Amino acid sequence: NAGVMQNPRHLVRRRGQEARLRCSPMKGHSHVYWYRQLPEEGLKFMVYLQKENIIDESGMPKERFSAEFPKEGPSILRIQQVVRGDSAAYFCASYSEGTGYTFGSGTRLTVV
Amino acid sequence: DQQVKQNSPSLSVQEGRISILNCDYTNSMFDYFLWYKKYPAEGPTFLISISSIKDKNEDGRFTVFLNKSAKHLSLHIVPSQPGDSAVYFCAANFGNEKLTFGTGTRLTIIP
After folding, report:
1. Could you tell me how far CA A97 lies from the centroid of its own chain?
2. Which of B57, B99, B105, B106 to mutate to test the interface with A (most CBs of A within 10 A)?
3. Are residues A95 and A31 in contact, defined by beta-carbon separation less than 8 angstroms?
4. Which residues contact B12 (CB under 8 A, 6 or more apart)?
5. DSSP state of A25
6. Spatial separation of the C-alpha atoms in residues A82 and A34, rounded to whole Å
């Protein structure tokens, strides 16, 4: 009964490269949320997806960031042309009525 | 626009005493409030929640109080234990929508 799985746990990218963060929700969960935590701050909502649909992307930066949750496979948060300010911990949560929100352990992105 | 605020970045409490963590919110649409505990290098784990129709919810050593008129909630931990040392986040939402988090309070339990 695996929880929310995120990989990689740590990711180092040079400025200008692309970062791909993956999230596999809990079994049976079809709602996925991505949050970002900057150093010394709380978690900030980025995007909410259901299978093959973006429901709410009001927290996503307008450029360079995109997210998907395909019919098969994990949800992907993609950051193109990373900059130093993208360095943060990125958390994924899946949701169901019965269990509520369950968070993964996060991906720590460092841009050098 | 910080809709959920935790004004104390840190708190130290003697083991065995009561820890009280506070949270204020501004959005009167919020109808569900949650507390999460977070250890370094891990994701937040759910602790306790409360619906806006209640003013108190208790689960073992943890009690959450909600004062809707003051838009304030608090988490009480008693007795505090060393394993309670962590960062605690208050969160809120309405209609099962996205969670809005506070900035967290780092609780340190002194043995």
Report:
1. 21
2. B99
3. yes
4. B107, B108, B109, B110
5. P
6. 17
Rounded to whole angstroms, the Cα distance separating B7 from A103 reads: 24
Which of A33, A12, A22, A35 is CA-nearest to residue A82?
A12
For A27-49, what is each residue's pLDDT tens digit? 888 899 999 999 878 899 999 99
Q: What are phi and psi of A74, to 5 degrees?
A: -75, 170
The pLDDT tens digits of the residues spanning A65-88 come to 999 999 989 999 999 999 999 999
Q: Which residues in chain A have their CB less than 8 angstroms from residue B104's CB?
A: 42
**Are B101 and A33 inside 8 Å of each other by CB?**
no
Beta bridge partners of residue B57, listed in sequence order: B64
**Counting every residue, how long is chain B?**
111
Residue A10 in contact with residue A90, Cβ under 8 Å?
no
DSSP A26-87: PTT--EEEEEEE-TTS-EEEEEEEETTEEEE-TTS-SSSEEEE--SSS-EEEEE-S--GGG-
How many alpha carbons fall within 13 Å on the CB side of residue A102?
21
